[in-house]
User: What shape does this take?
Amino acid sequence: MSGPLGGDRLGFDVEVGADADLEVTTAAATLALRGSSPAPATYDVRLTVGERARLHWLPQPLISARGSTLHQSYVLELTPTSRLLFRDEQLLGRTAEEPGHLTTRLTVRWNGRTLLDQQNAYGDTAPAWDGPAMLGGHRATGQLLIVHPGITAPAKPQLLGGGPEEGAAVIAPLAHGPALLATAIAPGPARLRRLLDMALARVPDV
Assistant: This one.
């Protein structure tokens, strides 16, 4: 969708009931744009997955266009028997364009306790966002989160991908839950998706 625009406040609340199976995607990327209001836009999503339920959340990427300001948040509530495949991708700027200002926060609660709480910031007002400790000059980044009661996760973090110019992904288990998180950076969306698919292929039982 073309939006959110500056000042917009968008929210989604999705609940997958017990024993249900749901896959959610989008027809096209979400494009964060500068609006007539100088206020930031917000995009808040709450996902609740019930007992023995399964959710595949696989939207197309979010594009942070020049001049935009967007605060995005996800809150996920899971039970011990929930199954989740969650993908979140960001493209920082359109072709040959500097990005706007983007903050993203992902909070995951499993069985009533926090499994993951992570926040990132990109764009000209975020310190060192483009430096070697974060994106290293890349303009595409994303995460793949897998939660499954029967998951067989690598015992240690694994690095996927080629050299620095091609981008890379790290896949690692999360403490205190049957979960695996892959984080990737890449020069563009096609390579980013390829890295996340490589991470998913390392988990054959999902």
Summary: The CA atoms of residues 130 and 136 lie 6 Å apart. The chain has one domain: 2-201. Helices lie at 189-201.
